[in-house]
Amino acid sequence: MMINRIHFLLLCCLLSGLGLIGCKTKQSEDGPKKIAIVVSTLNNPWFVFLAQKAEAKAKALGYESKIFDSQNNTALETDHFENAIASGYNAILFNPTDADGSIVNVKNAKAAGIPVFCMDREVNSNDAATSQILSDSYSGCVAIGKYFVETLNKKGKYVEILGMVGDNNTWNRSKGFHSVVDFYPGLKMVAQQSADFDRNKAMEVLESILQAHPDIDGVFCGNDAMAMGAYQALVAAGKADKVKVFGFDGAEDVVKSIQDGKIVATGMQFPEVMAQTAATFADEYFKGKRDFPQKMPVAVEMVRKDNVENYAAYGEKE
Questions:
Q1: What are phi and psi for residue 194, nearest 5 degrees?
Q2: What are phi and psi of 163, to 5 degrees?
Q3: Among 303, 202, 220, which Cα is nearest to 254's?
Q4: R_g over Cα of the chain
Q5: Can you tell me the distance from the alpha carbon of 83 to that of 57, in angstroms, rounded to the nearest whole number?
Q6: 58: closest CA among 280, 273, 274, 270?
Q7: Side-chain-side CA neighbours of residue 270 (13 Å)
């Protein structure tokens, strides 16, 4: 009987390697649960914070966890998912690189019986992820749009620097902003360009735009890294005291810059809330729960000079 069982397990894993059947042993089923944390990039402090908080919560709940960096590359993200599936991870806390391009990875995990909980960024599918915990970027940028209009006195030229074009957050933030600003004919957008949520790219983008439009009055950026890059470009051009810069995220350097009067405002996201909720949902899934909200919005709060003392990096002061 022992020889037959060994032969069976060898045949099972051989067929699994050929993609014909799954191979689960009793050890993989009864061993400690493992949670993979796959994030779009660790080249941005905001995502580092998100990943670390997810990892810390997973470990506090008693699970093994590991962070995987996709480096904003869907092919590398696919490698991470394949690794997580093959290595017996039991859940994936996921920050996608692309709303459309990442769907197949989530569906592959689902087919393997692994729940996926999206954090901050979503995939364009209502039946792939187990749940998606997302900042309410649209509403947050409606508030920023109103303050932008007020600060610029309803007139002037401005630039919009977009994030990654494949990320729904980019467009939700832009749409929220324009749902307000576009009603004021005295405000004219002279340029709209992507900088991929990257600080250095935003600096280069605005430097280029300033050559064609040196007389702008405001810059709206889809995240805080780009806001800091835009501010650097304005400093280099000698225009930092003339152009109003707005961001979105609640990063530490922008909170400090608002205190110092360099950046006008930002939308404060709460990555710790999203990360901890995703890890908690995974824990509840392991314990049998299945009725999770397909999308769970997390409110965004506007931070500006008159309330910045209430905030720290990525959230309210404790």
A1: -85, 145
A2: -85, -145
A3: 303
A4: 22
A5: 22
A6: 280
A7: 18
**Which residues does residue 303 pair with via DSSP β-bridges, in sequence order?**
266
- What per-residue confidence (pLDDT) applies to 1? 37
Short-list 43, 150, 28, CA closest to 89: 28
Give the C-alpha separation, 264 to 151, whole Å.
9
Q: What is the DSSP string of the chain?
A: -HHHHHHHHHHHHHHHHTTSS----HHHHHS--EEEEEES-SSSHHHHHHHHHHHHHHHHTT-EEEEEE-TT-HHHHHHHHHHHHHTT-SEEEE--S-TTTTHHHHHHHHHTT--EEEESS--S-SSSSSEEEEE-HHHHHHHHHHHHHHHTTT-EEEEEEE--TT-HHHHHHHHHHHHHHTT-TTEEEEEEEE-TT-HHHHHHHHHHHHHH-TT--EEEESSHHHHHHHHHHHHHTT-TTTSEEE--B--HHHHHHHHTTSS-EEEE--HHHHHHHHHHHHHHHHTT-----SEEEE--EEEETTTGGGEETTEE--
**CA–CA–CA angle 46, 93, 254 (5° rounding):** 10
% of the chain residues with pLDDT over 90 = 89
Predicted confidence (pLDDT) per residue in 37-90, tens digit: 999 999 988 999 999 999 999 999 999 999 999 999 999 999 999 999 999 999
User: Looking at the DSSP assignment, which residues form a beta bridge with residue 311?
Assistant: 316
Q: What is the pLDDT of residue 29?
A: 55
